[in-house]
Structures are given as C-alpha cells and as structure tokens.
Design goal:
Structural class: alpha+beta
Enzyme class: ligase
Largest sheet: 7 strands, antiparallel
Organism: Rhodopirellula sallentina SM41
InterPro entries: SAICAR_synt/ADE2_N, SAICAR_synth, SAICAR_synthetase_CS
Oligomer: single chain
Number of strands: 15
Order of helices and strands: EEEEHEHEEEHEEEEHHEEEHH
Domain SAICAR synthetase/ADE2 N-terminal: 2-255
Shape: globular
Catalytic activity: 5-amino-1-(5-phospho-D-ribosyl)imidazole-4-carboxylate + L-aspartate + ATP = (2S)-2-[5-amino-1-(5-phospho-beta-D-ribosyl)imidazole-4-carboxamido]succinate + ADP + phosphate + 2 H(+)
Number of helices: 7
Mean pLDDT: 92
Helix content: 25-40%
Low-confidence stretches: none
CATH superfamily of the largest domain: ATP-grasp fold, B domain
C-alpha cells in the first residue's frame, strides 16, 4: 500500500508497511515491507534501464520507458519534514495518465486463474488444455487483464473487453509489453532459482507514449516460488502475500466486512517470506 504526494511536475510515492488482500486494507502491517518493496522495484527498474528486461520492445535500442526518476528523498521534501522515516521507502516518478486495466501475465496455474480453470477450463477467455494440475507451468505465458475498479473488486475480463475500451492498437501494445517484460524477468529470476508464477503490471500515458508505472515485480504484485521446491499438483510455498490470503481463506471472515487482525505468527512468517524472496532474487540466499 502506497501514499502518493503531488510535487508539481512529479509524484512522490511512499511505500508503507500496510498490506491488502481481496481489495481490503488489513488492520495489521508487515514490518519493513515498504522498504523491501521499494528496493525490489528499484532492482527491476535497474534491469530495465540496462536493457536486460524489455530491450526487445525498443526499435531504437533505448531502454523501455518507465516512471521512476529517483529513490532519494527530494530536497523540497527534506526541507520541510524529517526525511529519515521516508528513506528507502519512496519513489519519485513522472506523472502519467493511468490505463484503467491491470495487465496480468500468468506463467503458472494458481490463484484466481486456477479457480477459473477448474470451473470453465479457461481464464479470461483463454482456453487451456484439459487435465492441467494446480500450479502447473503453462505451455506459454498468457495475458489476462482485469479492470481497475474505483469501488468494489477488480474484475478479470477477456482481452476483447480491453480492445473495446482502449482500441486494438493500444490493447495489443499493452499485451505485448506485458508478456515481454514477464518473459525477460522470469529468465532473470530463474537464474537465481526463483519462479515468477504470475504478476501484474500497470501502464500510463506520458508525453504521448505508454510507460510502465507503479511497483514492478514485487511480492505485492507477483507470485514467487523457489525453483528447488517446485512440485506441480499442489500449492507452493510462496514469497509473497499468498501466505496472508491463505490464512484469510481459512478464517471465518466473510470478505464483506472489516478484515480481522493478522496473528503475530502470520505477520512474522509473512515478513520472513518477503525477505527470503528478495534475497533469493539478488543471489544472497
């Protein structure tokens, strides 16, 4: 969860320790989460700047365009408030007109995709082969967009809905950008023994072109697994907030009321999972 401040020509996005699930902000935070997510986003943006991710998308050879300018506390902010609590938690970014869809890419069958497949054999209109198991790797990653609801829950929709709303050219560009970023990131992560099961990207219009915005490939926007533990046909140990989702699923919360506080044990284990995933990606595990 992030707080956004308008600095005039730019935005300052502050990552808090709050955590959300099923479109609710939970009453319990995850200590250090904001700093960890900011550092992970910076890790991926650096890979984009180097051309390791998304380089195939640029005909000119220049890096994929994104919104991040700096992760340093701006002087204009440091002059009026104590910058210490903000250090390691902020991104100064370009402004953009947000595309009203989340661009979800799935490389493995889990979560809402697994539930949809069990019911209909497809996800967001994408027909999948019969007999796939939970968490099984798909033959090729698939693009399954969802709406960005201002109120209520986001909704998974077929690609045709995105085309109807944005036009074929823009929708196709978003699909190709999302698939390419995912594929490149998955290769980078696999070298560190990490599988990216699925993720979601957000894009916006800036100076007449689509740029990547928001956090990127963090435990709050992606599902990470350890390659050496991967066993299709069952749920995997995740380095993301799936651990929290599973606890909420098992609780008696009805998902239409204020969520319950997380037990101390769940908070501590979630913190451990986040940190382990980050260390594995950086080759520190």
């Amino acid at each position: 969860m992030r707080d956004v401040y308008d600095l005039g020509d730019t935005l300052m996005i502050v990552s808090s320790d709050r955590i959300s699930a099923f479109d609710y902000i939970l009453p319990s935070g995850i200590p250090g989460k904001g700093e960890l997510l900011t550092s992970m986003s910076r890790f991926w943006f650096d890979a984009i700047d180097s051309g390791e991710i998304g380089g195939r998308l640029s005909e000119s050879g220049s890096p994929l365009a994104h919104h991040l300018i700096s992760t340093d506390v701006p002087e204009v902010v440091a002059n009026v408030v104590d910058p210490t609590p903000l250090q390691g938690r902020i991104m100064v970014t370009r402004k953009a007109e947000v595309v009203p869809f989340e661009c979800v890419v799935r490389g493995y069958l889990e979560g809402s995709g697994w539930r949809a497949y069990q019911q209909s054999g497809e996800i967001c209109g994408v027909r999948l082969p019969e007999g796939l198991r939970q968490c099984e790797q798909l033959e090729s990653p698939i693009f399954t967009p969802s709406t960005k609801a201002e109120e209520g829950h986001d909704e998974n929709v077929p690609f045709d809905v995105m085309v109807a709303d944005l036009g074929n050219e823009t929708a196709e560009q978003l699909r190709q950008m999302s698939l390419t970023i995912y594929e490149d990131a998955a290769k980078l992560a696999s070298r560190q023994g990490v599988l990216i099961a699925d993720t979601k990207f957000e894009f916006g219009w800036c100076d007449g072109r689509l740029i990547l915005i928001d956090e990127v490939l963090t435990p709050d926007s992606s599902r990470f697994w350890a390659a050496d533990e991967y066993k299709p046909g069952q749920a995997q140990r995740s380095f993301d907030k799936q651990f929290v989702r599973e606890w909420l699923h098992a609780s008696d919360w009805d998902r239409d009321s204020v969520p319950p506080p997380l037990p101390k044990e769940i908070v501590e284990k979630t913190t451990e999972r986040y940190r382990e995933g980050a260390k594995r990606l950086r080759g520190e595990w």
